Amino acid sequence: MAGLLMGGVYGRTLGGQAPARPTASAATAAQSPSAGKIVLKVGDESVTQGDVEATLNSLTPQAQRSLSVQGRKPLGDQIAMMFILSEQAVSHHLESTAAFQHALAMARRQILAQAAYQEVARQSVVTPQEISGYLASHQSEFEETQIEQVVVRKKPEGAKAGTPGFSAEDAKTRVEEIRKALSSGDDPKKVAEKYQVPNLIRVDAEPVVVHRGAMRADMEKAASELKDGQVSEVFDFPQMLVFFKLVSHKVGELKNVSSQIEDTLRQQKITSALDALKKNAKIWMDDAYFAAPNQPGSQGAIKPAVQPGGPATPK
Question: Where exactly are the structural domains of the chain?
């Protein structure tokens, strides 16, 4: 039960999972024409459609997606069990314990915080002018690169007999032949027909769209420095050689990125509003108590210059 109801209602505010877009409120659910319809009874207690809708709206997006697939029966079962257990707690006078009173006070704080957060989100309106202005000043963030990628598989050093792939020398010869053909302006489809070998050589006959951040940093840097029609250097990886031909650079259309920009700007406004609240509040924190734990071996650790991972293979 806690997975949907308790985790859903209380987990978002303090857990940092509140959605950027304002969600439907309990008040909205209560205004539904059928909000007063009784849809569940537990003993003498009745639960209306508005009650269920309000509970549903308070759940995390993940829980809501799960219920959209399963149906509302699991939620009804959990609401019924919540009523049963709450009556059990009352009959055993558990509400009078110090632990319950503390939990009740914290739950009230969390619900109030969630309501305040939703109000801040509701007031954080993003205008079309702000969206278009953001795109104009952050064009590189929404750049779409079209590439034709070539991958030649090679055997890693010390590989067992029968391992798929070319020797390092043969792989280099193949990749340079293909690179020369594409650099000369040969039709990628004809190049693919001539050189492509299943599970050994891949040649993109059609351009593939790659969004910013989808490629390895070194490959993305190379793409940003190439002009349309130019071919990149060969990137040498343990099990493959890779290069690509840059087809074009272009900025994503406003209609395709407006939703993403709106979410970004709304979250910025929400964060700014929350920061202002924190600035005006008197907060003291015991730094020693809240300090991050020491990680074994963290001191003097050397980070790798190149992060692990293979070349981007856009889907």
Answer: 5-116, 144-251
For residue 93 the two structure tokens come to 């006078």
Give the pLDDT mean for 2-12: 44
3-state secondary structure of 232: coil
pTM over 0.70: no
Q: What is the pLDDT of residues 111-140, one digit of tens each?
A: 999 899 999 999 999 999 999 999 989 887
SS3 84: helix
Which CATH number does 144-251 carry? 3.10.50.40
What's the chain's Rg over C-alpha atoms?
A: 29
Q: Which helix (H) or strand (E) holds 49?
A: helix 49-58
Q: Which of 283, 263, 304 is nearest to 21 (CA)?
A: 263
CB 250 within 8 A of CB 198: no
On the question of pLDDT at 292 being above 70, the answer is yes
Q: How many CA atoms lie within 13 A of 210 on its CB side?
A: 28
CB 198 within 8 A of CB 257: no
Dihedral through CA 23, CA 25, CA 30, CA 31, nearest 10? Answer: -70
